[in-house]
Write a structure and sequence with these properties.
It is a single chain. The chain contains four helices and no strands. It has about 110 residues and is an all-alpha fold. The chain has a single domain (about 5-105), classed as Non-ribosomal Peptide Synthetase Peptidyl Carrier Protein, Chain A (Orthogonal Bundle). Helix 1 (about 5-20) crosses helix 4 (about 85-110).
């Protein structure tokens, strides 16, 4: 199971990858408080989608779990999972925890 720290590291690496493609005057300050969406964000919609795809791909590669960060559930939340890195970390942790719980439940019923 992934830890919050591992998930945050994965998100920060995705943002760093984006930064590597941006001009020096457009690079994001990368931290737990980096705003990804909404007021104060330095990401345009295409950049945000790129980061999301990179994160979903990395989650699959690292933990062999398929997650969707842009489904109805994410969009219906009172606080967007893309508010900042910290909130996104918590949301991914929640998704992975639920998947782990589902696997445990299935294993116990068989």
């Amino acid at each position: 199971m992934a830890t919050r720290e591992e998930i945050m590291d994965l998100i920060l690496k995705a943002i760093q990858s984006l930064n590597n493609e941006r001009p020096s005057n457009e690079k994001l300050n990368i931290s737990e408080a980096t705003i990804l969406f909404g007021k104060g964000s330095q990401l345009d919609s295409l950049s945000l989608v790129s980061v999301i795809v990179d994160i979903e791909t990395a989650v699959m590669e690292v933990w062999d779990e398929s997650i969707s960060l842009t489904d109805d559930r994410a969009m219906d939340r009172d606080i967007s999972p893309f508010t900042d890195v910290h909130v996104l970390t918590d949301y991914i942790f929640e998704l992975l925890l639920e998947k782990k719980g589902s696997e445990d439940a299935v294993g116990k019923t068989i």
